[in-house]
Structures are given as C-alpha cells and as structure tokens.
Design a protein that fits this description.
The structure is a homodimer.
Chain A: E1 13-19, E2 28-33, E3 36-40, E4 56-59, H1 62-66, E5 71-75, H2 81-84, H3 87-93, E6 98-100, H4 102-114, E7 122-124, E8 130-133, E9 136-142, E10 151-157, E11 160-164, H5 182-191, E12 193-199, H6 216-225, E13 230-233, H7 239-251, E14 255-259, H8 261-272, E15 297-301, H9 311-316, E16 330-333, H10 342-354, E17 358-360, H11 375-385, E18 387-393, H12 397-409, E19 424-429, E20 432-438, E21 443-447, E22 450-451, H13 456-468, E23 470-478, E24 483-493, H14 502-518, H15 526-545, E25 550-557
Parallel strand pairs in A: 3-5, 5-6, 6-7, 11-12, 12-18, 13-15, 13-16, 14-15, 16-17, 23-25
Antiparallel strand pairs in A: 1-2, 1-19, 2-3, 4-21, 8-9, 9-10, 10-11, 19-20, 21-22, 23-24
Helix pairs in contact in A: 4-8, 5-11, 6-7, 14-15
Amino acid sequence: MSQRVNATEPSKLRIVSLGGVDEIGKNMTVFEYEDDIVVVDCGSIFPKEDMLGVDLVIPDVSYLVAKKKNVRGYLFTHGHEDHIGATPYILRQVPAPLYGTKLTLALVDLKMKEHRVPNITMHVVQPRDEIQLGKFTCKFIHVSHSIAGACAIALTCPAGTVVVSGDFKVDYTPIDGQVTDLQTLASLGEKGVMALLCESTNVERPGQTMSEMKIGPTFENLFRDAKGRVIVAMFASNIHRMQMVIDNGIRYGRRVCFIGRSMVNVSRVAMQIGELHIPEDCLIDVDSLDQYPDEEILVMTTGSQGEPMAGLTRMAYAEHRKLQIRQSDMVLISATPIPGNEKFISRVINQLYRCGAQVVYEALAEVHVSGHACQEELKLMHALVQPKYFIPVHGEYRMLWQHAELAESMGMNRKNIVIPEIGQVIEMTENSLSLGEQVPTGGVLVDGLGIGDVGNVVLRDRKHLSQDGLIIVAMAIDRDQGVLVSGPDIISRGFIYVRENEDIIESMREVVRGILRESSLDGADWVALKNRIKDDLHRYIYEKIKRNPMILPIILDV
Amino acid sequence: MSQRVNATEPSKLRIVSLGGVDEIGKNMTVFEYEDDIVVVDCGSIFPKEDMLGVDLVIPDVSYLVAKKKNVRGYLFTHGHEDHIGATPYILRQVPAPLYGTKLTLALVDLKMKEHRVPNITMHVVQPRDEIQLGKFTCKFIHVSHSIAGACAIALTCPAGTVVVSGDFKVDYTPIDGQVTDLQTLASLGEKGVMALLCESTNVERPGQTMSEMKIGPTFENLFRDAKGRVIVAMFASNIHRMQMVIDNGIRYGRRVCFIGRSMVNVSRVAMQIGELHIPEDCLIDVDSLDQYPDEEILVMTTGSQGEPMAGLTRMAYAEHRKLQIRQSDMVLISATPIPGNEKFISRVINQLYRCGAQVVYEALAEVHVSGHACQEELKLMHALVQPKYFIPVHGEYRMLWQHAELAESMGMNRKNIVIPEIGQVIEMTENSLSLGEQVPTGGVLVDGLGIGDVGNVVLRDRKHLSQDGLIIVAMAIDRDQGVLVSGPDIISRGFIYVRENEDIIESMREVVRGILRESSLDGADWVALKNRIKDDLHRYIYEKIKRNPMILPIILDV
C-alpha cells in the first residue's frame, strides 16, 4: 500500500492503552484523532505484593501531559476503582471535562472532594446520549455489570467507529430490568464498526455468567429463617444487589444500618441521586442499633475482601466501637475474593465462626455472581458489533491471548487482531492497521502524599530491610589524628531477638574492631573502609546464621 | 461421675495437637497414655505474609522436650511437607525412632541428610503392619492421597482405639489399583473405635473428589497431539501421577528429563525404592537435551506453584541455564494453586504465553484433581469407623466447625465432638471426655539457621521497615563540653528517592538542628533527647508526606 496519503483519505485513529492491558486494573485508554484526544477511564490498581508500603498505583500519563491542550474530555464506562481510582491524581495534571452516568460521576465526585481537586467540570450523561468532543462523537451504551450505570462507549471519528465494551455481562434478567443495550450494539455493527476493544476478565470461563437475579432466592430464604441480626458484607458500589438485599430485609421486618466509610458514603450518594430507594423510617443509625430488637436489624457493611480496617473485620475482631459479632448473628458475605485476598477473607470467616455466628459465603451458598462476561457473552458482543479489527483489553496477558483466539475461532483474521502492549500506539483506518511508536508509560506509585517519589531503589531497600532487617555500625573517627574516638556501636532492628543473642552482636563488634585495627584511619578512604565493613560483616553473618541483613556503616568525622 | 479411679478402670488417653488445627499445615499430634507418648506427623507450615523474611514455621515442642524420655516414636501418615517438614529441626531436640511407609521415610531421609541430623532410626512399615510402642499398638492403614504410601493410623491403648485419618480421599480407580483400605477401617469400626481424628481440608466441597484416573485421558490426548517438547510442572511427590504422565510420554515416543532440585531428588529416590518405574533408556540428562528432537522430549519439572526459584519459573523467564521455553513447547501445569500462590502461578502462565508456548492449566483442562476427601467421602469415613468421639483436624477453624456439623448431621451427639484448640489437652476413656490443661505451643519461626530467634519484636520491626523505610539521625556529642562535634547526619533507606528530594532531607536536618539548639547537651539525658528527635521528626514527616518511617537517632559519645 502506498504511504502517500490520499487527499480525501482520513487521518489515522491512534489508540494507546496507558493501563489495563496485561493487568487487571488501572484501565485508561487514549483515543487520538489529529488534534483531538479523548480518554476512556482513569483507573488505579492495587500495588503488587513486592511494592512494599505503596498505597496505590496509577498510570503514568506523561503522554497526556505533553499533549494537554488536545485533551477534550474523559469518558467513564463505570465507577469501579480500576476505572476511576486515578482521577484525583491525574485530573490535577491534565484537567478536562468528565463525562459519565449519574452514579459514576457521583463516585468520581466523592474522590475529587476527598482530595480537594478544584474546578473539574462534570457532565452527567444518559445511556444513548451522544457527546461531541472535537472530531469525536461519543455514544454511551447501557450494559449490565456489578455496578449501576455501567456503559460501553462508541467513539466515531472520520477514520471510523470504535466500540469500547467497558466491563459488562449480558444479564437477561437484571435487577433493574435494563438488559445490556443489544439493539444499539447491533445497529452499530450493522452500520460498520472499525474496531472493538473488549474486556477479557472471564475469558477463561466457558458458558454464561449467572444472572444477578439468581441469588435473590438465596437471600430471601436466609432472611426468612434468620432469628437474630443479619449482617451483609459486600461492595458498596453494587447498588442493584444492595437494593435487592435491602428489599428482602425490609420485607422481613428489618431496618437498615450502614457501617463502614465507603458503605455510608456510597449509599448516601446513591439515595441522593435516586439510584437506591429506602423508606426513610427503615434507616437507622449505628448509634441507635441498641434500641431495636435483633430480629429487626440489617447491617450493610464493608469488608467483603477481609480488608483489615473495614467494617466486618473490625466487628469480627471486637475492634468496632459500636457493633461486635455475637452468637445469634447471621453474617452473609456477598462477594468473591479478588486474587490475592483469599487469605484475608478466610481469616475473617474463621474469626466469625469463632464468635459463634452463622456465616454464609460463596463456598456454601449462591450469594454472589460475577459481573463479567463469560465466553458465550463475549461471543455475543463480537457477533453484534462485527468489528473489522479487534483489540482484547482488561486482562492479563494469557487472557488477552485467549480472547484473541476466541475472536479467531469466530472467523476473524489474526492479522486484524492486535494484542496490545501498554504504551504501544495502534494506528488504524478502515484500510490499514499498524503499530506506531511506544509512548512513555507504566505505573506511578502513590505512597502517602507522595506521587512517584518511591521507585525501584526505594522498593529494593524496603524489600531488603523486610527480609532480614538492618545492622548499623556507628563510630566516630578523628581523621586528623587517625584515631577511633567512639564506637563501634552495633545497632540492629528486625535482625534477631537481641536480648537472647548478645553473643552474636558482640562477635560482630569484634569483627569490626579487627578491621579498624588493620586499617589506617588517618586520612583514610572511608568509602573503602565502609565497604570492607559491609563485606566482612555480611560474610560473617551469612556463615554464622545464613541471613543477609542490610548493613549500614556510619562514620562521623570529629 | 466420681473422680476416684476404679482399680480396673484404665487411665485416660491424652491427645494434644501441637499444630494442624485452626490451620492447614504443621500437623503434629501427641498421644499420651501413662508414661508412653507416640507422635503422629511432624509437619511445617509456610510463614504467613506478615512473617517477613521467615523461611518456615515449625511446631513448638516444649511439651515433648519436657517429656523426652517418654517419647516412643514418631509415626508418619505420609510424606508431604505439612506432615514431615519439621523433622530435621525437631528430631534434634526430641530424638526417637521413626515409622512410616517406604516413600515417606525416604523423603524424611532426604531432609535428615540435607540437615545432617545424625543417628535417627527409621523403620519402614507396610500397610496393615502393627507396631508396638510402649502401651500403644499402632496399625498403618492404606489410603489414597496425592502422594504414594499414604496411611491412616489406628492407635490402640488400654483406654481404647483412636483412628487418625491422615490426608485421604476415597478413589475407587486409583492409578496403583490400591483403593483406600475400607475393610480395615470397617473392621476397626465393628470392633469399636473410641475416637476419630479426621482431616477437614475439603469439608466445604459437596460430593466426591474426582478420581486420579479421570485426568489420564486429558494427558493422553495432549501427548498424542503435541508436536514439540512437552514440559509438565507438578509436585514431585505425586509419584502416581508422575508415573501416569511419564507412561503417556513414553507411549508417544518421548524420553524423560527431570529438572528442579526436588523433582530430581524425589524421582531418584522413588526409582530406588521401586515406587517409580522408568526404563533406563528412556531417561535423559538435562545436558543431553539438545541431542534429541523436540518431539522426543518430556521434561518433568518443579514450579507448579509459580515459586520464583523453581524450574518452570526460571525456564519461562529465560533464567534457566539449560532450557528456555520456546514457541513450539507445550507446557502442562498439573496442580492447583495453594491459597496465596494464585498471583505467582498466574504470572508464570502469562510469561509462558508471552514465550509463545501452548499452556494447559487447571482453568482450561482436567489436568489436576484434589487429593482430599469431599463431603461424601468424609461421611464414608465416619460411617466406616463409627467413632464414639470425633475430633476434626487439619483445617482452619471454619472447616473444623463445618466438619463437626457434618458429624452431627450423621447422628453424632455434639457433646462427643471436640473442636480442638492448639495445645489444648483432650482426655478420654470410653466413659469420659474432658479437656485437660493447655500446654505451651505455637509456631517457632525458622529464618536461615536461626530457630526461634525471630519473634514478634523482630517481625514488627521488619514490618515497620518494609512499609516506609528508615531514617537514621547520627551525631557525635562531647558530653563533657556539652557540644555537638559532628552531624547531625541524615541517612535514609527505603524512604524516598533521595536524589530528587534533597529538600525534604535538608528540612529534616533543620528540624533536628532546632531540637539540638534548644537542648542542653552537657550531661543531658540522651534517652529524652532521642525520643524528642523521634517524636518531632515523626510528626514533621507525617504532616509533610503522610509516611511513617522508622526513625533511629544515634548519638556517639566522644
């Protein structure tokens, strides 16, 4: 094909994932057509287990910072953390108007207020609304997911139309009665879609995800039989499930008490915007819990992932000021552990049993369904949208690969599929698909108020310190006289229980004294002296006890 | 009931779990009748994620140390780490003869040699053998499990008979043709069993565990279709599965190469003792792999849990000296992640996909079955043994509780069920069941060569250091003159990327200088001075950046 651009041929659409590919989290995709950029989602991800002390990881948006003036807006598919969690950090760097459904923007707004980010314009959209952002026409398309107000988004520019699935499932009997908008997806497919970016979370699972409706009877049965208080732990953002649980509770004569910061905040916001409906007289405050008999109480709380500071965990360990689990309680955990959280939630369940409560969780009853499309639903999405090109997103590498195979099995040419790499620009028109440049990207670590000031060196030190602790060798040397005037003192932390091991500390001091006796201290090269102390002590300790603490020699000049 | 002991009434049997209850791991149960003690199993457990830098956790056996002379022997149900892993540490403290089947003792022997534990007598037993240890008659009973040579054990003393299930499943079509010895269990039940200690790993799962035979066809199909090398990652100790995989490999013209320390060691031992059969000419060494065409190669390797140093992981990341994964390879991971390992194995699978290999794992095909009894098999065990008392073991608290409920659902009186606590003595005769004293117990942490020298204080420091790192404030003071003669120097590790944040380091130094200016340094109380530095700096850093590093003031006297 000729590289010369035909005068009537449109420019290329450029797509680059700043996160969310080869990982589940920090979803953020940039769409760029000539001078116009729109960004879909702006999520965060939990730190990996080797990112010690890090609170949160957000996308590196240097690319957007450099093209700040072109950014026309942020579009949000839905309000989960992996789609909105980075907003307070990134909107400060690259401000632009935000577009999303009512609940999504309400959740973003909570974050903005908490982080005191000023002057961000937010536009609430309805499904099927079309927004014009530069040369992009952006259409929101209702989908079912484990949060209300979830949407796919279709972006049309002169190069063609791209459909971004967002997170979705095809639930034919959703709690709110609104099935994923198959009609709009079908009509886009009929008109012609250039590319589909589709989520891959459940691509390893055959069949169809169970309907959210399916777990209703489980809750109904449990509420009918419950004698004491009922305590339900779940994600606050799953408003539809929350509504279903609360409706069941009210039907069986209970009042609702919200506990846990995000449960309190999200339920308040959801009621304000009319997404959650609870009669005023059915709401009770945690402080008035004691005024009601047990069988009239329904507590909705956080902690379904066993998070140490969340409501359920604190209740189980008797660390909650207002509510402690007792024998007559029934605790329902309506969630599945996010990979890596299995041990935490398992610990909380054990503790709840120890309190004597009746505990119902996923292994024992149908109290949770996934919010993501399984294989047959993914196939439906492909069949409706009939894209020319396919880019699997929102998954680890193996999932993206398997999603590519799924598309191929439906007849798509492998040449029209791109497994995206983070930061790799993909360029397309209806007639061409190619890879562009690699833009700077990656994870930016948030630790306390610091953003990006913790990197590999700092993490390596934290890791080292965490494994075998630290030994400080401190001394003062009069360099002019060449004499040791104080020390060597040995201070250790996290290395060994010192009180019962004074001999090993003393023998380490002796090793250092030996080195000092052999070294000339006047005008000496202290870098070399420090290295010798490090090396000899390291070797001595490793031979003696097979540990490798960090060794820090400190020499003060006097 | 009268406390006076009838002259003809036997003494009480005392049972105490030194591990393996309220946890999955470090199984170790003490049976004590008058002056005779026998110990069943001696396992280790992985450190919890907050036990930073710890290699292994073993049971605290102070109770046995105090009664050393009464210990008649150790009986092993099977050779998994959670049943034999503590032997090299504990046999040094409380030596006694060991009893177990051929493979079990061969695996124990590997450990003893590695740790150079001298002079331990080992007696190989056959299933149905009876051993007399003091007043205990100990009978080994064949059971199916995910390792060869697994046994339940019946202990008979004048007080009655106790059956310890060990880890088991009831596989009616096991690879070796030897079904769990239902006859012996039934005949014990017929004669009368005082108590059953039964494992609870899969008590949350309804139904029956799939037969090991079920996965044979999966492997056969994969081997038939494989074009390049086949690499199988699994636990080395699952000799029967290993045999099945290798037989399939050989049938389709492949030769076997073992890679990974435990794979090499265990397969060698298993062949020596006749548990694993491979024709001599079908074995190839890793160094001669290049001499064979890809389609003739079967590699058996470690790393099925994604362990960073294991064979498969190193192959995937091109860190293995002899073998790297390439596009034509088929990799079979025949295992399920142990809770907590999900992320590690997931990362390795992604990397294998990135290498272009075909990867088959549990989510995609039937390449693994559990080794533990599900609910229906547990019920069969209860129905065969018909115990008077029941003690659920080998499970987290919720599992023990659910196992107690399972027994109750079969008609057992709740009064005859004890959910054991670690270290809590349970005393019984045919006519009485009661709790005795609590003996000292818990986890002893092994870190390098140190056993028990890492405790809560050390772990707390490691945790603290791992989260926000460390700041050292070093200075030298002439106490007589009351003057600062060197410093304050600020040294940080794991706190912040210093080169780009010199201003915060300098401002910290200024905080310390301020304190020193305000303090009288002659004959000053340095504890107070250090505390002031710690407190003020802590407050300053937290306000500035919301982090909480460990702060270590060091003052050298000159």
